[in-house]
# Entry
Amino acid sequence: MGQDQMKESARAQEGERPADPQVTSEARRRFLLSAGATVAGAGFLAHQLRGAGSAHAAGPGPTQLAQAAETPVGPQWWPSKWGADDQLGASNHMTPAKTMEAASLIKTGKVYPIGHVYEPEMPLFGQRVWALRIPGAPTGGAFADNKVIWNDEFLATEIGQVGTQFDALGHIGVEIDGPGNQAEKRFYNGHAMSEIATAYGLTKLGVEHVRPFFTRGILVDVKGLKGGTLTAGQEVTVADIEAALDKQGLSAEEIRPGDAVFFRTGWTDHWIVDNETYNGGEPGIGRPAAEWLAEKDVCLVGADCWGVEAVPNPEGLAFPAHQILLVMHGIYLHENLQFEALAADGVSLFAYIFAPLPMKGATGSPGAPIAVV
# Structure
């Protein structure tokens, strides 16, 4: 989730105003307050699952939870089908055979950049920043008789969660027990906050574990299906996906294990042009479509908006697609993409190529994904 709304919603409830002028709109505040309410509701659900008559304030331990096999998002989702110690998630699909399958889609050699330029004017959430400086003018030199000089840059940013961003498996989790129980804040494959979290990066599920992606990409052109840009909170349903694919001359059966599926909603129309609208909500998939994609065994889901899924959520939940895809199935997310050039050329199938920066312990990665046809 490129926009870490959970922390900001608490700030909004406490009356703290974000310093970033891009996010001071009433629409953003309403959204944050709504997200805070849904988080509170999730906590109530967790309490009900534990049982009001629990003898211990801390709730049941891991053994009891495993026996109950229930969490705020449904049955226990671990261990992964790739093994109890797996940290690769759906990047396990990145095999030589999958690479060759994707390469077979390349007929013309045309390359489409599908990421945005990183710049301070891009939509940023809360107090996140993108501040790049060139120290000195030049930074170094001149040296030797040839008078060599050079420039370096200094960058201050939340590098994995701004602009075009890739969510790794340590980014999103589920609080199963109370807020003080770090052992029952669970992530992909059941890894607990108590075992992965340090102030200096994650000890498990960091982005360095992700295999580079070279796989089949499928663009679902929902904007084309609907005849225009979708609205904030508008849910992309399974029926929409099937209808869009049909209009594009494809079928749902075209989505194969290990594929990357992308959604064009038109939300990128607001990028930099209207950051207040862009940040104030978004169209996207909901829980049913996320479950449908998980059943397809895809490796990644991406979109031209900041969080892939509909916000506000039509079911009153807080980012359920993130939990279904990242947490329960190890399926990665790629956010703040752009597909207008692909759509203009009528491209639906392509080779998707992206290598996350191997930053040890990071929750995500910036980068420059491409589509090749």
Observations:
- Confidence is low (pLDDT under 50) at residues 2-68.
